[in-house]
């Protein structure tokens, strides 16, 4: 997928940076209705938005997002059409995303789970659509 022209604006990135969760709404196969609406943690790394599935690749919203690669997300009081792709699993990017999770969610009891192997594997790159 060519993502060079699909980037979040600086203003949109600020919305992601200033909110702890986004609501993930991946499409069903009909591409008109949503599989579910799930509040998830998100981070911004190098101008890109990422989110991890709590139960790794068995997370329901993650499975729908990777099957359809499209849906919507809600952050604060903003709704965005979104597309989803698996994150590049380079050691450098995984480390940056994990560091961003540690910085943003430092006080959360669930942090160790979100930076473990299963959720790290189930990292999505969230792009505007």
From TrEMBL:
This is DUF2255 family protein. InterPro entries: UCP028498 (IPR016888).
